[in-house]
Structures are given as structure tokens and as C-alpha cells.
Amino acid sequence: MDQLVQAVIAVMGPAAIWLSQSRSVQVQRWACIVGLASQPFWFWATWESGQWGVFVVSLVCAAAWVKGLWVHWLAPRPADGLGTIQLTPDSKRP
């Protein structure tokens, strides 16, 4: 069981971080799903080993992944989407 837990942590943790750094929002939004799926394994491993500092960090990370779940999947969106402001290189003044 311990090897399975360690394998899941070793694969899913970095995968979630990698997804979160994508340029594509469609890819970024999956980071919180993968991150949340790995959190029970983090909780189990740190609880069993008595690493209370890492356990607290895993709780904070879980809260961050829940925030991502809210932002990317659950939050209501305006019907026409959210507008952004873009500055082109030519628009900068010296």
C-alpha cells in the first residue's frame, strides 16, 4: 500500500503542477482536478508518518486546489464572458 501511495504522489503531484503552468486555460483548469485527486494520498502518507508540518502544508494545498475547482469549474460566469485588456507593444509610451 505504501508503494502505491508514493507512486500516486510522485506522478499526480508534479502532473498537477505541470498542468497549472500551461499557457492554455483549457489545460490549466485540469490542474485542480488532478491536484485534488492526489490529496487523499498526501493526507494518508503524512498522517501515517507523523509528518505534521507536511500534513498542514497538504491541507493548505488542498484549499488551493479547491479554489482552482471553484474558479475553473464551479463559479458562475457572465453570459458574454469576461473581457480582458490587452496592450500591444506599439501602445507603450516612453
Task: Characterise the protein shown here.
Helix 1 runs antiparallel to helix 3 (31-49) and helix 3 packs antiparallel against helix 4 (52-74). This protein has 94 residues and is mainly alpha-helical. It has helices spanning 2-20, 25-28, 31-49, 52-74. The termini are far apart. The protein contains four helices and no strands. It is elongated, with a radius of gyration of 18 Å. It has one domain (2-75).
The number of helical runs is 4
Number of domains: 1
Mean pLDDT: 90
Question: How is the main sheet built?
Answer: none
Distance from first to last alpha carbon = 61 Å
What is the SS-derived class? mainly alpha
The coarse silhouette is elongated
Task: Tell me the helix content.
Answer: 55-70%
Keywords: Membrane, Transmembrane, Transmembrane helix
Describe the structure in brief:
The chain is mainly α.
Keywords:
94 residues, mainly alpha, 69% helix, 0% strand, elongated, transmembrane, transmembrane helix, membrane
Show the helix and strand layout.
Layout: H1 2-20, H2 25-28, H3 31-49, H4 52-74
Helix pairs in contact: 1-3, 3-4
Keywords: Membrane, Transmembrane, Transmembrane helix
Transmembrane segments: 51-70
